[in-house]
Model the fold of this input.
Amino acid sequence: MTNEAYLQYVRKKERERSSPLAKNTALAFIVGGAVCVLGQLLSELYMSAGMSESDAGTAVTVTLIFLSALFTGLGLYDRLAKHAGAGTLVPVTGFANAIVSPAIDFKSEGFITGMAAKMFLIAGPVIVYGTVSGVVYGIVLVLLGTA
Done:
C-alpha cells in the first residue's frame, strides 16, 4: 500500500468514526459537573454533621475515591465513561479509576504478581512525577529562602 493510499484509507475511517463534538462536550460537562456537585453536597453534609471544613474536605475525598473504586469494581464506572467521556476524569474519581482498573484486569494473575504489581501501572508515573516535582519545588523554595 502506498503512502497516498494509506492516507486516503485513514481519512475515510476518520469520517466514518467522527464523534459528535457538541454532544460529547455537553455530556462531559454534565457528568463532570454532577461529580463536583456530589462532592459539594457531601461536603455540606459532613459539615452539618459537625466536621470542620478541612475535615469535611478530607472525608469528601475519601468518599469519592471509595465510590469510584466501588463503581469501577462493579463495572459501572466504565459504562458511565463510555457515554460521559472526559466528564469522568474529574481528578479524584478519575485517578481512583486509573488505579483500580489495572488491578481488576490482572487479578487472574494472582494477588501479588497480578493485582498488587499492576495496580500502579498507569498511576505510578503520575505519583513519581508528583513526588519528584514536590521535592524539586521544595528545594527551590529553600534555596530562595522563602520556605
